[in-house]
Amino acid sequence: MAKANLPLLPLILSLLYIAAGTAESTAAPANFIKASCSATSYPALCVQSLSVYAAAIQKSPRQLAQTALSVSLDRAQTTKTFVTKLTKFKGLKAREYEAIKDCLDEISDTVDRLSQSVQELKHMGKARGPDFLWHMSNVETWVSAALTDENTCMDGFAGRALDGRIKASIRARFTHVAQVTSNALALVNQFAAKY
After folding, report:
1. pTM for the full predicted model
2. What is the pLDDT of residues 91-108, one digit of tens each?
3. What is the CATH number of the domain that holds 180?
4. Which of 131, 77, 136, 152 is closest to 108 using CA atoms?
5. Region 20-33: what's the mean pLDDT?
6. Computed from CA positions of residues 109, 111, 113, 116, in that sequence, does the dihedral angle turn out positive or negative?
7. What is the CA radius of gyration of the chain?
8. In a domain, 11, yes or no
9. What are the phi and psi torsion angles at 41 (to 5°)?
10. Does any domain span residue 112?
11. Of the four, 98, 99, 132, 153, which is 20 to 30 A from 55 by CA?
């Protein structure tokens, strides 16, 4: 009886080896993302928003930074669409409408700056030395400016007169965009420091 199962042993061992290799190959990118995100301001959000891209990121600091910027851009574009719809609401107070318009301007600037950053990182190729530093400086500047834009939006809602659902919903969305953008900037800085 034991001899009948012996020819299956190499097959079983091969399958176990392949399964272990697959688990290890998917764990490595996830661990890389988790380790990289630990240095960000919002590590749980960082891991949650980037883990779905682990297969594409692998263990590449550049791909991690690129993906983080793309996630930030996506969230900013979604927020821009939301704020655009708010400008069309009927019955807004004049000051509320102006604050929403200001937020639309700010999030539009954020989308532009994050788009520039994504493109700059994509098109810098294998730049080294001064060229690499110049490209990275551009990206860091634009992402920092995007963070300022996101924070400036809420200035228009200062005071209790504008408290309410619109202010709360804009604050929630802009806070989320600011957090993923902050994480993206931290990951861009990590990438720049490695080269």
Report:
1. 0.84
2. 888 888 999 999 999 999
3. 1.20.140.40
4. 77
5. 70
6. negative
7. 23
8. no
9. -75, -25
10. yes
11. 132
Residue 104 maps to a domain: yes
What are the tokens at 26? Answer: 């998917």
Residues spanned by the domain of 85: 26-31+38-193
Q: Which long-range contacts (CB under 8 A, 24 or more apart) does 133-142 make?
A: 133/192, 136/188, 136/191, 136/192, 139/69, 139/188, 140/185, 140/188, 140/189, 140/192, 142/113, 142/114, 142/116, 142/117
5 part of a folded domain: no
DSSP string across 125-189: TT--HHHHHHHHHHHHHHHHHHHHHHHHHGGGG-SGGG-SHHHHHHHHHHHHHHHHHHHHHHHHH
Total domains in the fold of the chain:
1
The residues, ordered by sequence, that sit 6+ positions from 34 with a Cβ below 8 Å of its Cβ are 47
Within 13 Å of residue 13, how many CA atoms lie on the same side as its CB? 6
Q: Is 190 exposed, middle or buried (0-12, 13-18, 19+ CB in 10 A)?
A: middle
